[in-house]
Amino acid sequence: MDGNGRWARARGLPRTAGHNRGAEAVRRTVKAAIEAGVRYLTLFGFSSENWKRPASEIDDLMGLLRHYLKREIEEFHKNGIRLNVIGDRNRLGADIVELIANAERRTASNQRLNLTIALSYGSRDEIVAAAQRAMQAALDGKLKPEQLNEQNFSQFLLTADMPDPDLLIRTSGEKRISNFLLWQCAYAEFVFLERQWPDFDANDFNGAIQEYLGRTRRYGGAG
Protein backbone atom coordinates (compact mmCIF):
# COMPACT_ATOMS: atom_id res chain seq x y z
CA MET A 1 0.00 0.00 0.00
CA ASP A 2 2.44 2.64 -1.28
CA GLY A 3 2.21 6.36 -1.78
CA ASN A 4 0.84 7.83 1.46
CA GLY A 5 3.81 10.15 1.96
CA ARG A 6 4.01 11.21 -1.68
CA TRP A 7 0.26 11.82 -1.76
CA ALA A 8 0.55 14.16 1.23
CA ARG A 9 3.67 15.92 -0.04
CA ALA A 10 2.06 16.67 -3.39
CA ARG A 11 -0.71 18.49 -1.51
CA GLY A 12 1.51 20.32 0.94
CA LEU A 13 0.25 18.21 3.83
CA PRO A 14 2.10 16.36 6.59
CA ARG A 15 2.76 12.66 6.05
CA THR A 16 0.23 11.87 8.76
CA ALA A 17 -2.50 13.20 6.48
CA GLY A 18 -1.45 10.65 3.87
CA HIS A 19 -1.54 7.84 6.41
CA ASN A 20 -5.01 8.91 7.56
CA ARG A 21 -6.26 8.89 3.97
CA GLY A 22 -4.55 5.53 3.53
CA ALA A 23 -6.63 4.15 6.39
CA GLU A 24 -9.76 5.22 4.50
CA ALA A 25 -8.46 3.32 1.47
CA VAL A 26 -8.16 0.24 3.68
CA ARG A 27 -11.86 0.52 4.55
CA ARG A 28 -12.80 0.88 0.88
CA THR A 29 -10.66 -2.09 -0.08
CA VAL A 30 -12.06 -4.36 2.62
CA LYS A 31 -15.58 -3.48 1.48
CA ALA A 32 -14.66 -4.06 -2.17
CA ALA A 33 -13.13 -7.44 -1.33
CA ILE A 34 -16.30 -8.56 0.43
CA GLU A 35 -18.50 -7.39 -2.44
CA ALA A 36 -16.26 -9.21 -4.93
CA GLY A 37 -16.50 -12.46 -2.98
CA VAL A 38 -12.81 -12.50 -2.05
CA ARG A 39 -12.23 -14.76 0.95
CA TYR A 40 -8.61 -13.85 1.83
CA LEU A 41 -7.13 -10.36 1.79
CA THR A 42 -3.66 -9.56 3.12
CA LEU A 43 -2.49 -5.96 3.59
CA PHE A 44 1.15 -5.00 4.10
CA GLY A 45 0.69 -2.38 6.81
CA PHE A 46 4.18 -1.92 8.28
CA SER A 47 7.38 -3.70 7.30
CA SER A 48 10.33 -4.68 9.46
CA GLU A 49 12.31 -2.12 7.43
CA ASN A 50 9.81 0.63 8.28
CA TRP A 51 11.31 0.80 11.78
CA LYS A 52 14.10 2.84 10.14
CA ARG A 53 11.69 5.74 9.59
CA PRO A 54 11.78 8.85 11.82
CA ALA A 55 10.51 8.19 15.34
CA SER A 56 7.81 10.84 14.98
CA GLU A 57 6.34 9.13 11.91
CA ILE A 58 6.45 5.73 13.61
CA ASP A 59 4.63 7.20 16.62
CA ASP A 60 1.96 8.61 14.30
CA LEU A 61 1.56 5.26 12.55
CA MET A 62 1.29 3.38 15.84
CA GLY A 63 -1.29 5.89 17.05
CA LEU A 64 -3.30 5.32 13.88
CA LEU A 65 -3.02 1.57 14.42
CA ARG A 66 -4.30 1.89 17.99
CA HIS A 67 -7.22 3.96 16.79
CA TYR A 68 -7.99 1.44 14.04
CA LEU A 69 -7.89 -1.53 16.39
CA LYS A 70 -10.16 0.18 18.91
CA ARG A 71 -12.72 1.65 16.52
CA GLU A 72 -13.00 -0.84 13.65
CA ILE A 73 -13.13 -4.23 15.34
CA GLU A 74 -16.83 -4.22 16.20
CA GLU A 75 -17.56 -3.21 12.61
CA PHE A 76 -15.37 -6.07 11.40
CA HIS A 77 -17.19 -8.49 13.66
CA LYS A 78 -20.60 -7.28 12.52
CA ASN A 79 -19.57 -7.78 8.89
CA GLY A 80 -18.19 -11.27 9.40
CA ILE A 81 -14.53 -10.34 9.04
CA ARG A 82 -11.88 -12.40 10.78
CA LEU A 83 -8.74 -10.41 11.64
CA ASN A 84 -5.31 -11.98 11.72
CA VAL A 85 -1.98 -10.18 12.24
CA ILE A 86 1.38 -11.57 11.13
CA GLY A 87 4.81 -10.19 11.95
CA ASP A 88 7.17 -9.62 14.87
CA ARG A 89 4.99 -8.46 17.76
CA ASN A 90 7.99 -8.12 20.07
CA ARG A 91 8.74 -4.71 18.60
CA LEU A 92 5.19 -3.43 19.03
CA GLY A 93 3.96 -1.67 22.15
CA ALA A 94 2.44 -3.91 24.83
CA ASP A 95 -0.92 -2.16 24.51
CA ILE A 96 -0.95 -2.72 20.74
CA VAL A 97 -0.13 -6.41 21.20
CA GLU A 98 -3.06 -6.69 23.62
CA LEU A 99 -5.39 -4.89 21.21
CA ILE A 100 -4.35 -7.26 18.43
CA ALA A 101 -4.92 -10.33 20.60
CA ASN A 102 -8.35 -9.06 21.66
CA ALA A 103 -9.30 -8.30 18.05
CA GLU A 104 -8.22 -11.75 16.89
CA ARG A 105 -10.19 -13.42 19.66
CA ARG A 106 -13.27 -11.28 19.02
CA THR A 107 -13.38 -12.11 15.31
CA ALA A 108 -12.01 -15.68 15.40
CA SER A 109 -15.25 -17.39 14.37
CA ASN A 110 -16.01 -15.09 11.40
CA GLN A 111 -15.78 -16.55 7.90
CA ARG A 112 -16.96 -13.94 5.40
CA LEU A 113 -13.49 -12.45 4.88
CA ASN A 114 -10.15 -13.48 6.34
CA LEU A 115 -8.31 -10.17 6.68
CA THR A 116 -4.61 -10.46 7.47
CA ILE A 117 -2.51 -7.41 8.27
CA ALA A 118 1.28 -7.73 8.12
CA LEU A 119 2.79 -5.56 10.88
CA SER A 120 6.49 -5.37 11.69
CA TYR A 121 6.74 -8.03 9.01
CA GLY A 122 9.63 -9.11 6.81
CA SER A 123 9.45 -12.21 4.66
CA ARG A 124 13.12 -13.13 4.93
CA ASP A 125 12.83 -13.05 8.72
CA GLU A 126 9.73 -15.20 8.46
CA ILE A 127 11.50 -17.80 6.29
CA VAL A 128 14.53 -17.93 8.60
CA ALA A 129 12.26 -18.39 11.63
CA ALA A 130 10.37 -21.14 9.78
CA ALA A 131 13.67 -22.90 9.02
CA GLN A 132 14.58 -22.69 12.69
CA ARG A 133 11.25 -24.23 13.67
CA ALA A 134 11.75 -27.01 11.14
CA MET A 135 15.25 -27.67 12.53
CA GLN A 136 13.87 -27.79 16.05
CA ALA A 137 11.18 -30.24 14.94
CA ALA A 138 13.98 -32.44 13.55
CA LEU A 139 15.95 -32.20 16.78
CA ASP A 140 12.82 -33.13 18.72
CA GLY A 141 12.37 -36.23 16.56
CA LYS A 142 9.12 -34.96 15.05
CA LEU A 143 10.47 -34.56 11.52
CA LYS A 144 13.22 -36.31 9.62
CA PRO A 145 15.34 -33.99 7.42
CA GLU A 146 14.53 -36.03 4.31
CA GLN A 147 10.83 -35.60 5.05
CA LEU A 148 10.96 -31.82 4.74
CA ASN A 149 9.26 -30.62 1.56
CA GLU A 150 7.45 -27.56 0.25
CA GLN A 151 4.13 -28.60 1.75
CA ASN A 152 5.23 -29.26 5.31
CA PHE A 153 7.72 -26.38 5.31
CA SER A 154 4.79 -24.05 4.59
CA GLN A 155 3.26 -25.18 7.88
CA PHE A 156 6.13 -23.50 9.73
CA LEU A 157 5.36 -20.12 8.14
CA LEU A 158 3.14 -17.44 9.67
CA THR A 159 0.61 -18.06 6.91
CA ALA A 160 0.21 -21.79 7.62
CA ASP A 161 -3.60 -21.57 7.76
CA MET A 162 -3.92 -19.46 4.60
CA PRO A 163 -3.81 -20.30 0.88
CA ASP A 164 -1.00 -18.78 -1.16
CA PRO A 165 -1.93 -15.46 -2.81
CA ASP A 166 -3.41 -15.57 -6.29
CA LEU A 167 -2.92 -11.87 -6.91
CA LEU A 168 -0.54 -9.23 -5.56
CA ILE A 169 -1.48 -5.58 -6.11
CA ARG A 170 1.08 -2.83 -5.55
CA THR A 171 0.24 0.86 -5.84
CA SER A 172 2.13 4.10 -6.52
CA GLY A 173 4.16 2.86 -9.46
CA GLU A 174 6.55 0.68 -7.44
CA LYS A 175 7.49 -2.57 -9.20
CA ARG A 176 9.09 -4.79 -6.61
CA ILE A 177 7.98 -7.17 -3.83
CA SER A 178 9.90 -5.44 -1.01
CA ASN A 179 10.29 -8.48 1.24
CA PHE A 180 6.58 -9.35 1.26
CA LEU A 181 5.39 -12.99 1.25
CA LEU A 182 8.38 -14.13 -0.83
CA TRP A 183 7.70 -17.84 -0.39
CA GLN A 184 3.94 -17.51 -0.69
CA CYS A 185 3.99 -15.35 -3.85
CA ALA A 186 6.03 -17.84 -5.89
CA TYR A 187 3.18 -18.19 -8.41
CA ALA A 188 1.09 -15.10 -7.67
CA GLU A 189 0.07 -12.80 -10.49
CA PHE A 190 1.28 -9.21 -10.04
CA VAL A 191 -0.59 -6.01 -10.90
CA PHE A 192 1.29 -2.73 -10.54
CA LEU A 193 -0.72 0.49 -10.44
CA GLU A 194 0.40 4.09 -10.74
CA ARG A 195 -2.36 5.28 -8.42
CA GLN A 196 -1.18 6.16 -4.91
CA TRP A 197 -2.69 4.20 -2.07
CA PRO A 198 -4.78 7.04 -0.52
CA ASP A 199 -6.69 7.27 -3.82
CA PHE A 200 -7.13 3.51 -4.27
CA ASP A 201 -10.79 2.55 -4.54
CA ALA A 202 -13.18 -0.23 -5.53
CA ASN A 203 -12.72 0.50 -9.24
CA ASP A 204 -8.97 -0.06 -8.89
CA PHE A 205 -9.52 -3.23 -6.90
CA ASN A 206 -12.04 -4.67 -9.32
CA GLY A 207 -9.93 -3.62 -12.30
CA ALA A 208 -6.97 -5.55 -10.89
CA ILE A 209 -9.16 -8.61 -10.43
CA GLN A 210 -10.40 -8.34 -14.02
CA GLU A 211 -6.81 -8.14 -15.24
CA TYR A 212 -5.99 -11.22 -13.18
CA LEU A 213 -8.97 -13.11 -14.62
CA GLY A 214 -7.69 -12.39 -18.13
CA ARG A 215 -4.39 -14.15 -17.51
CA THR A 216 -3.51 -17.82 -17.93
CA ARG A 217 -1.79 -19.40 -14.94
CA ARG A 218 0.43 -22.28 -16.08
CA TYR A 219 2.55 -22.89 -12.98
CA GLY A 220 5.49 -23.76 -15.22
CA GLY A 221 3.41 -26.08 -17.41
CA ALA A 222 2.21 -25.73 -20.97
CA GLY A 223 -1.23 -24.44 -20.04
UniProtKB/TrEMBL annotation:
The keyword Transferase applies. Substrate binds at residues 3-7, 15, 19, 47-49, 51, 53, 170, 176-178. The active site is at D2, N50 (proton acceptor). Residues 1-21 are annotated as: Disordered. Keywords: Magnesium, Metal-binding, Transferase. InterPro entries: UPP_synth-like, UPP_synth-like_CS, UPP_synth-like_sf. GO terms for molecular function: transferase activity. It comes from the Bacteria. Its cofactor is Mg(2+). Mg(2+) binds at D2, E189. Its EC number is 2.5.1.-. The keyword Metal-binding applies. Binds 2 magnesium ions per subunit. Belongs to the UPP synthase family. Homodimer. Catalyzes the condensation of isopentenyl diphosphate (IPP) with allylic pyrophosphates generating different type of terpenoids. This is Isoprenyl transferase. It comes from Dongia sedimenti. The lineage of its organism: Bacteria, Pseudomonadati, Pseudomonadota, Alphaproteobacteria, Rhodospirillales.
